[in-house]
Hints:
Blueprint: E1 7-12, H1 13-18, H2 23-32, E2 37-41, H3 47-64, E3 67-71, H4 74-80, E4 84-87, H5 94-101, E5 106-111, H6 114-121, E6 127-130, H7 147-158, E7 170-173, H8 181-186, E8 191-194, H9 204-214
Helix pairs in contact: 2-3, 2-9, 3-4, 4-5, 6-7
Amino acid sequence: MPPLPRLYPLVDVDLCRARRLEPLAVVAAVxxxxxxxxxxxxxxxxxxxxxxxxxxxxxxxRRAGARLIVNDRADLARLAGADGVHVGQDDLPVxxxxxxxxxxxxxxxxxxxxxxxxxxxxxxxxxxxxxxxYGTATKDTGYSARGLDLLRRALRLSSGQAAGASxxxxxxxxxxxxxxxxxxxxxxxxxxxxxSDLLTGGDTAARTRAFLDCLSERRV
Length: 220
């Protein structure tokens, strides 16, 4: 898998609709702002509606030359032609998800403690999401804020593989804002996953550009 960009936007369908925003318009705005890797997080119960939205989001990403993955549902990711799937602790295991999306697709996995990180490192996951780093109301993981300590422990575990193996990239998630993002990258995260803060200010494209500028090589 090509390296993850430092900014990993998550477009949360429920959050968008709670704020009276059209999810596809948010995807388009994030792409307009320069994001190149996006997760579409859609928890609506209708598989048909989820597939239709994923199809449309993938088409937008393709036109922008970006990669887009979907949450939880490996079957829908494959049907939509997405670049991969992100699974949680209660979803299909990484290897089963990979059987569905294919060997070359991206498979990411959420982790919330050291045991989960260690288990994930032993799989073929392309990256690990670790969090919540800070307190967040966007997603109820059942875990309290972990802080940067868990991130640092995850980094040690992710690089402690067999000799010659490359480290598994670690994505930090949970309560990450424009102000907090640089310290998270400085702590070693390959990327920061941002959800609600991208909607701050009412101009998602501009907010995306602000994150990209903040996290650029010359600033971090």
